[in-house]
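ok so i was messing around last nite and threw this chain in just to see what happens. nothing serious, just curious
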Amino acid sequence: MPPLNRDYWYWLGLGMTTTPEMYRILADKTAELRVFEDKKGRMNCSVEDARGALLVVSQSTLFGDARRGRRPNFRDAANSTKAELLYSQFVEQLQSRGLKVKTGVFQTAMQIDLVNYGSVTILLVSEKIF
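result:
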């Protein structure tokens, strides 16, 4: 078994209808979600419990809607002014809980290297859409 990784990568998509209440709910869920292994190897610890760190990257392409046609549309993604404000507030909400948070550079193409152990990907949404 590899050493336990206490870091957590988080891709944040902000939509036209995202409100401050929604990002607060997502920030709390992010901090409290039990996705790290405990001593018995069960996913039973949050990033707070693990004293881990977060990398939060804004990613408007999460709102790419490809249900029709061959090219995704992004009309539901928040405009850059709104998204940057909510992104900053989301990060501040996590930091106010005492979490270590690193961020990507807003509206920049970034190259991020990571090693992903396991196959866990969890989608958190602020609106019940499915």
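not much to say yet. Helices lie at 20-32, 80-96.
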